[in-house]
Amino acid sequence: MILRKALSVALAWLTLSRSMAVVKEQPLLLFNNTLLLPTSESESPADACFPALGFKMPTTVPSSLDGWWCDSSTEYGFVGFSYEITQCQSKSTLNSEFADIRKRFKGRYIRLYGACDRANYYDDITEAAWENGLGVHALIWFGWDDPNIWKTRRDNLFRSLQSNPKAKFVTRVLQFGSEPLYDWALDPAQLAEQVRAAKATLANLNIPVTISEMAYGFQEHNGAADVLAAIDVIDAHILPFFASDASTGDQAWKDVQNDLDWFVQRVGGRKIWFSQNGWPSVTYPGVEPNSPNAIASVAEESKYYALLDSKCSYFKTVPGGGVGWFAHLYSDYQEPGYGILDTNMKLKFGFAPRTSC
What is the distance between the alpha carbons of residues 177 and 182, in angstroms, rounded to a whole number? Predict the structure, then answer.
């Protein structure tokens, strides 16, 4: 008994000393007035569903989706990043950055933004997501240059989803976007028809279909009831910096709540994600406020995410399995001012929001 106790004490001191060594080697950061200590993925629960933080990817592709996806009620709070692919990142870059999202930031998903028209590019996304245990909100990007290129992108994505055996195991949602209603990419009847057609095409893969849109995008089409009825889940754009009464990141809750309430009151308990969600640290043409009091800075960006993190318990209770939120974007190299990382891939501020509470 004494020997066992001595061994236990020794092991405890060894664990503590190793933890302190890690703390000495890594910088300490503050997020939401909390000291952030480095953690390891082994500290997360070993959940038996994808993409839980403790989930271990299988060595072979499963034969069925049965029991694969985590229940949506566990997917609230911070879930990952919007990730722009206009740069057509290489396979090695995708793999290293997805690994960073998973391991350092405890991300469970990436939400694609923009488009890369390189042949078979979604296969590269799928492989990197599989290798790093990340789910994907895939995207059919309309863009603004060619009014018909979205059809080619749709067909290419469908081919990849149907032919790549790993695709249905990492693709959580398919989005039409970004902001197709606000941009009048299609009229609501046409967009609703595209959603229904995609659902039929992907029915064998059990991939839900939605659009990635602001509440205002629906509102400017009198609610776009046909689109709202067609989509399976809500990928909501929450961008309070552009509100007419915007000021600072920590004062944004009223505008966030208003948009969230608009969806909650109309979607009948469907899952809600904040898919394009953030506060810019700089302004430039195209990213300019509608309020004279709105401040774009790194400090306000940090305050906005701290605000969201402070609402974790509330997000957990929202009908449909709670609200899971993405940070827009992973890095400023993807779009100036919105990244958690700057263009040199350095953290702009401490960032470790909760994934559960």
Answer: 10
Q: Within 10 A of 229 (CB to CB), how many other CB atoms are there?
A: 13
Kindly report whether the global pTM for this prediction surpasses the value 0.90: no
214-227 confidence digits (pLDDT tens): 999 999 999 999 99
What does the longest C-alpha to C-alpha distance in the chain come to?
77
Cα 51 to the center of its chain, rounded Å: 13
- Rounded Cα distance, 71 and 74, in Å: 6
**CB 214, CB 236: distance < 8 Å:** yes
Residues 6+ apart with CB under 8 A from 112: 82, 83, 84, 85, 125, 136, 137, 138, 139, 175
pLDDT 10s digits, 327-355: 999 999 999 999 999 999 999 999 999 99
Q: For domain 40-327, is the CATH number 2.30.30.90?
A: no
* Closest to 321 in 3D by CA, of 277, 273, 275, 276: 273
39: its two tokens: 């953690």
Are 83 and 138 in contact by the 8 Å Cβ rule? The answer is no
Asked whether 138 and 112 are in contact (CB, 8 A), the reply is yes
For 274, counting Cβ atoms within 10 Å of its Cβ (0-12 exposed, 13-18 middle, 19+ buried), the class is buried
